[in-house]
Amino acid sequence: MSIDVLSVRKRQEGFQFVNELESDSDSDVEMANDEDKVDSGEVAKDGTIVTPGELVTDDPVWMRGHGTYFLENQTYASVAGTVSRVNRLLSVIPLRGRYAPETGDHVIGRIAEVGNRRWKVDIGAKQHAVLMLGSVNLPGGVLRRKSESDELQMRNFLKEGDLLNAEIQSLFQDGSASLHTRSLKYGKLRNGTFLQVRSPLIVRSKKHTHNLPGNVTVILGVNGFIWLRKTSKVDNASDASNVSGRNAATLSGASGDYKPGSNSVSITRLEEESSWEIYSDKNDPIPEAMKRTIARYSNVIRALAHCEIGITEARVVAAYEASMAYSHVGSLIDKDNMESIGQDVINAEKMRGNA
Amino acid sequence: MVMSLTEKRYLQECLISKPPLRPDGRNDDQFRPIEVFTDFLPTSNGSSKIVASDGTECVVSVKSKVVDRSLEDDLIVVDVDITGRRDDSPLVQEIASILNRVLLLQIDQEQLRLTQKYSFKLYIDVLVLSSYSHPLTLISFAIYSALNSTQLPTLISSEDDLDVAELPTFHDYDMSKLNIDIPIMFTLAVCGQNVIVDPASSESDVASNGILVTWCKGKVGAPIRTLSLNEEYTRGIHPDRLAESIRLIEILAPKVLQALDG
Amino acid sequence: MSRLEIYSPEGLRVDGRRWNELRRFECSINTHANASDGSSYLEQGNNKIITLVNGPQEPKLRSHTNATKAVLTVSVNITRFSKTERSKSSHRNERRVLEMQTALVRTFEKNILMHLYPRTQIDIQIHVLQQDGGLMGSLINGITLALIDAGIAIYDYISGVSIGLYDTTPLLDLNTVEENAMSSVTLGVMGRSEKLSLLLVEDKLALDRMESVLAIGIAGAHRIRDLMDKELRKHGEKRLANVSSNQ
């Protein structure tokens, strides 16, 4: 294998400080006033780009959503982004910004603070989310009351730095989120590795846990936090109860240790699983080949993120297959290789779309 | 960033297996890609900016001054500023002292000599904009690139000025390239029986120790020392790891220099 | 030593500009995507400035929490090598720098929709790699761009520019040589309006000339706003094109 030990890109002329910057404009040229001005009584079209301070509409019938403000009967944009009109609601979706939690989102978070009957969880939003002691399953079954001793040993369940998988239960007035982990598919994360991408790249969907070929499971948190792990019994069970809508590749990969009878999770199973084991800090033994697979998945997801391609199960699998052209996982950190994988995925989709 | 116990255990297991399984699949001797920008500060004699793929970024400026050699001891001064760290924090102090020592030790001050009486003095200012892993390797690469791009005014007065009370005079616009041997430094992380180059922040967090190896004038030179990469996992190292690090750098350094000179 | 002619009878300045011309203005956003929520790089004449915005995020200190609005911090790092002559001090905690930081916080506190971000903190970090006059104006422009890049809601652009008064002629967008030779004013102008969110007059200035100084300053600031707007739209369109082809 001949791999460069160090890949160096050099830039040397002109206004070279910045990536992808074509210094094509001469600033001495007078600007043409070519902006689309909103005329009286009109509203900017769906999808047009607006910048802060720009008049979006002077028609007061519109309800003003995020990214706008209202002054003297006129609605202005407060962020740079695209205009979105849903019924009578007018908002501007920013081009960039932190993750904004919504009720029902499946997210991954990291414990930032252990407090009084609650954990503060970093979910990459503007504020930390709150996980109440009452919103988690504790050893000894779901119906058990939380006692004072639970309060005292909160760090034994979850401590600073721990990663968990949770759902947004509700939002507070100030926009911060409250989480819960009251389901088998949520809880502390083990047996794998973490990576983070920009949150808009993860599209909200019905299912965010996917079993991938090679006995690896990925959790694509809506907040852009991603967990890759060895596929567990629970993953297989939940997958089996939800066979529809999966692509064939996953099926063949995951069906390796498919066990009949484990396809539904009963209450008793739930209690069984709610033992101390769910808060364990130990990993199961993971074979080296699988670790290598996890590293490859992690790199191809980064490649998709680098190309700003929305991350879905199908694309992760497609990118993984495309990456097989590079036998060495470490060569996938190269920009050119990442871009070529992204291109492969897009091209494959276009081909299928045309066929 | 704090990692969870399970993450650390998983990662450590990966890194101590033979050969090491790095989280991004790199070989033990593979660096992360970097981008190098040079000569963007016209008011400095030399400048460079290096961005690593994880967002770690470092800007270096080289400015020169003509000084009377009999009045100055050190002809190279390095100043380090790391965003988010106080100037008197241990990391900043440690990096500044290592850099000052290495550059004074490895660069022949004669190469900065201008006349019998006067020399150039180089002020190297390092600004780390954001750092996720130990920034020493990156800073060292940035200093190398900056010094390599450094242009100094060309002398037109006589070199022999011992008896003349005259300041050196320079050509109006002609510059000549600074020609010195520049040392570069490598940080390596020790994980069990393995030694890996350019550890990422997560790798540094579970490494059992760090080793600093200096390369100058075509060979491994002083200083070679250990470097604490984290507080939790640090333990002593076997001399074999040291020998292995040196062997690794002996193979790698020429390739790295070639890439940087590009 | 011959004195430099600040403003020639033919109406040319030291760098060849006319009285009402701006310096070269180039900017770019999202330059440090891995290190911040929003970032910009700005070259205004020979000023070279990196601005990083982090937040809105959980306050690092409890004492920095405000239950009704965000807390804004600005730190200006003027590097030792930013001028031709290397400075001996690090400029940190210098009175002049602290005053700049305070003025910037005041200006942008009024421009950000702070009430949308209760219990959070917005940190702005500025690195001045090179300076050549009119620094305060450039800092304002850099911050405006980085805030927009971060997706933080603001009322309008604020564009900054400095204006000097040479004898009776106002000169737009001063460089260091000019700044040292005459009295100057720094303006921060809201969008395309004639509202000033910042007015800094640190030298003696004939009041009867103020009007002409403000007039050319506001016109210059509007021009800068348009240049920033153009760059933002260009970036936005590129981004959208990328997304639509990839979804």
UniProtKB/TrEMBL annotation, chain A:
It comes from the Eukaryota. Residues 98-170 form the RRP4 S1 domain. It is found in: Nucleus. SUPFAM superfamilies: Eukaryotic type KH-domain (KH-domain type I), Nucleic acid-binding proteins, Ribosomal L27 protein-like. Its main location: nucleus. The keyword rRNA processing applies. This is LALA0S05e01816g1_1. GO terms for cellular component: chromatin; cytoplasmic exosome (RNase complex); nuclear exosome (RNase complex); nucleolus. Residues 49-86 form the Exosome complex component N-terminal domain. Keywords: Exosome, Nucleus, RNA-binding, rRNA processing. One of its GO terms (molecular function) is RNA binding. Gene3D superfamilies: 2.40.50.100, Nucleic acid-binding proteins. It holds the Pfam family ECR1_N. Residues 192-232 form the K Homology domain. One of its GO terms (biological process) is nuclear mRNA surveillance.
From TrEMBL, chain B:
It comes from the Eukaryota. GO terms for molecular function: mRNA 3'-UTR AU-rich region binding. Residues 30-153 form the Exoribonuclease phosphorolytic domain. Transmembrane segments: none annotated. InterPro entries: ExoRNase_PH_dom1, Exosome_comp_Rrp42_subfam, PNPase/RNase_PH_dom_sf, Ribosomal_Su5_D2-typ_SF. Its main location: cytoplasm. Signal peptide: none annotated. GO terms for cellular component: cytoplasmic exosome (RNase complex); nuclear exosome (RNase complex); nucleolus. It is found in: Cytoplasm; Nucleus, Nucleolus. GO terms for biological process: exonucleolytic trimming to generate mature 3'-end of 5.8S rRNA from tricistronic rRNA transcript (SSU-rRNA, 5.8S rRNA, LSU-rRNA); nuclear mRNA surveillance; nuclear polyadenylation-dependent rRNA catabolic process; rRNA catabolic process; TRAMP-dependent tRNA surveillance pathway; U1 snRNA 3'-end processing; U4 snRNA 3'-end processing; U5 snRNA 3'-end processing. Keywords: Cytoplasm, Exosome. SUPFAM superfamilies: Ribosomal protein S5 domain 2-like. Belongs to the RNase PH family. This is Ribosomal RNA-processing protein 42.
TrEMBL record, chain C:
Its main location: cytoplasm. It comes from Lachancea lanzarotensis. It holds the Pfam family RNase_PH. InterPro entries: ExoRNase_PH_dom1, ExoRNase_PH_dom2, ExoRNase_PH_dom2_sf, PNPase/RNase_PH_dom_sf, Ribosomal_Su5_D2-typ_SF, RNase_PH. GO terms for biological process: exonucleolytic trimming to generate mature 3'-end of 5.8S rRNA from tricistronic rRNA transcript (SSU-rRNA, 5.8S rRNA, LSU-rRNA); nuclear mRNA surveillance of mRNA 3'-end processing; nuclear polyadenylation-dependent CUT catabolic process; nuclear-transcribed mRNA catabolic process, 3'-5' exonucleolytic nonsense-mediated decay; poly(A)-dependent snoRNA 3'-end processing; rRNA catabolic process; termination of RNA polymerase II transcription, exosome-dependent; TRAMP-dependent tRNA surveillance pathway. Keywords: Cytoplasm, Exosome. GO terms for cellular component: chromatin; cytoplasmic exosome (RNase complex); nuclear exosome (RNase complex); nucleolus. This is Ribosomal RNA-processing protein 41.
